[in-house]
Design the sequence.
């Protein structure tokens, strides 16, 4: 299964990442992303939709199995556990038990953050913070 996923990620993920980074925000619909994949990859919409589905279905299957999915220069999807807790019914105010559940957490990598915020890299932020701290100690 893992070799199939690696093959799928070979070209398709790179194309998808290019597509996602070309949007100004991530509130794009599946249809618009598929259209962009088709355009950038020189594919028809049907083939692009199939590749899109294959990649995201593979990601879902890995997450369901409890595995993390790492995409270089983009980020990491991982399954985390929320424990059972006490809560209140907002309508009645009655105490209830909220069951434990698994959820998907996404952590973006610095390379993606840097692309989203050009000219504001980690090194620049550290330098600016150091200058601000030095300026406060001098006063």
Sequence:
């Amino acid at each position: 299964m893992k070799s199939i996923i690696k093959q799928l990620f070979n070209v398709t993920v790179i194309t998808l990442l290019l597509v996602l980074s070309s949007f100004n925000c991530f509130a794009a619909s599946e249809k618009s992303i598929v259209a962009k994949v088709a355009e950038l990859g020189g594919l028809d919409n049907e083939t692009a939709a199939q590749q899109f589905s294959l990649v995201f279905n593979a990601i879902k299957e890995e997450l369901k199995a409890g595995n993390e999915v790492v995409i270089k220069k983009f980020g990491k999807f991982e399954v985390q556990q929320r424990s059972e807790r006490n809560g209140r019914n907002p309508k009645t105010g009655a105490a209830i038990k909220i069951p434990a559940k698994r959820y998907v957490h996404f952590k973006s990598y610095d390379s993606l953050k840097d692309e989203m915020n050009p000219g504001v890299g980690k090194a620049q932020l550290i330098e600016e913070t150091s200058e601000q701290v030095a300026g406060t100690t001098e006063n």
Q: What stands out?
A: The radius of gyration is 21 Å.
